Amino acid sequence: MPSVLKRATRSDKKIDRGPVVARSITEREKEVLRLVALGYKNKEIAKDLGVKVKTVETHRFNIMNKLAFRNISEMIRYAITKGIAPIEDE
After folding, report:
1. Which of 6, 27, 28, 34 has its C-alpha lying 20 to 30 A from 48's C-alpha?
2. Each residue's pLDDT tens digit, 32-88
3. What domains can be seen in the chain, in order of their start residue?
4. Rounded to the nearest 5°, which phi and psi values hold at 88?
């Protein structure tokens, strides 16, 4: 795992929104979250899921709002620490 990701997942800032996921983000949003955390761009995600780029942007916006993330790094760190987007060791 790259050192940046290791530092991000060990951050002192706790982001524990586990129970919130079950009640607030949809399966599709969870899928988009996983792909974003794995580094895919909106256009790639849209093609992979068979939707428009605007739909992916809407899902990302909804995820950020529902889980109260302030930035994309919080969203990615959350996905990794919760096992939504497992990162393999190199």
Report:
1. 6
2. 999 999 999 999 999 999 999 999 999 999 999 999 999 999 999 999 999 999 877
3. 3-9+24-81 (1.10.10.10)
4. -80, 145
Predicted TM-score (pTM) of the model is: 0.72
Q: How far is CA 20 from CA 50, 66, 73, 83, in A?
A: 27, 8, 18, 15
63: exposed, middle or buried (Cβ count in 10 Å: 0-12, 13-18, 19+): buried
Q: For 3, which DSSP code?
A: H
- Sort 30 into a burial class: Cβ within 10 Å, 0-12 / 13-18 / 19+: middle
Candidates 1, 66, 63; CA nearest to 33 is 63
- Could you tell me if 59 and 32 are in contact, meaning their C-beta atoms sit under 8 angstroms apart? yes
